[in-house]
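Troubleshooting log. The previous structure file for this entry was overwritten by mistake, so regenerating from the original sequence record. Sequence copied from the archived sheet and checked twice against the printout by T.R.
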Amino acid sequence: MPHLGLVTLVVRDYDEAIAFYVDALGFELREDTVLSDGKRWVVVAPAGAREAALLLARGATPEQEERVGDQTGGRVSLFLHTEDFDRDYARMRAAGVRFEEEPRREPYGTVAVFQDLYGNRWDLIELRVA
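Regenerated output below.
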């Protein structure tokens, strides 16, 4: 069955993006390959993830650079699932991740919105077990 492999996230700088996703969010650096002068193939993913990952792509044109941090018009666009919300929430806060709200309990689970280093909005979410 097909699956979603990569989602592109436009970033300002490869190295600062790698540092944030690896150090603050706990992702793994899966690949960092130089393609040409100034262009790299950089893939990060949550530790242990088997399918979807992020392709970090440096904005190469003024139009792309304008999209850094607001690729979806201010909506939450990425959803980071966890099996231990309290552990990951505490670890991320200690690493300097900026949460917009306190955790809230919803019918579907526990969730809190946070921003990455560019302002893209994410949900940290632990789904309720039925």
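Residues 14-24 form the longest helix (11 residues). Archived copy saved in two places this time.
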